[in-house]
Amino acid sequence: MDPFEIRFVADVMLGHLSKWLRVMGCDTHYQPFYTSGKIEEFIVDGRLLLSRNRRMIKKYNPSLFIETDHVRTQLQELIKKGCLFPDMSRWFTRCLVCNTLLKKLPLQDAKGQIPEYVYSQNFSGICFCASCGRYFWPGSHKTRMIAQIAEWNLAGC
Q1: In this structure, how many other beta carbons lie within 10 angstroms of the beta carbon of residue 98?
Q2: pLDDT tens across 14-41, in order?
Q3: Dihedral of CA 46/49/54/59: which sign?
Q4: Helix and strand tally (H, E) in the chain?
């Protein structure tokens, strides 16, 4: 399996990690509650289970126990275990809410859907999530996320 194509399913204890994996472009399914049999479906579909629950790890294969409870060290742990390969070209390519790949939009297609100040500043890089209908653009939130990744020493990995 191509290491850049590792797809994850994260258990209910790893919502924050899931968001950051999505920021870094990883296909990461997360929901705050899984119905009976749902995790098995994701594993059969080829996803690696990430969990902080040892019973879950014993029950499902393939799975990976996440030892730490801080996002920075969780991401470092995934890198050390060969499950995460930070590649800046993949960052900000997924919806942070629903995990869908984002589509680039011409600025004029976003008019009326994004704040006027964003439109008037003629930002490039407007993206759209076809699944949940959210719009994304390279603003201060993205800048802060990139700075956080750099502070965690993950940008150059």
Answers
A1: 16
A2: 999 999 999 999 999 999 999 999 999 9
A3: negative
A4: 7, 7
List, for residues 80-129, the tens digit of each pLDDT value.
Answer: 999 999 899 999 999 999 999 999 999 889 999 999 988 888 777 899 99
Give the C-alpha separation, 117 to 108, whole Å: 14
What is the identity of the amino acid at 141?
H
Cα–Cα distance for residue pair 55/133, rounded to 1 Å: 37
Q: Which residues, 6 or more positions from 143, have their beta carbon under 8 angstroms from its beta carbon? A: none
Integer Rg of the chain from CA: 17
Name the 3-class secondary structure at 94: strand
Cβ contact 148:141 at 8 Å: no
* Global confidence as pTM: 0.92
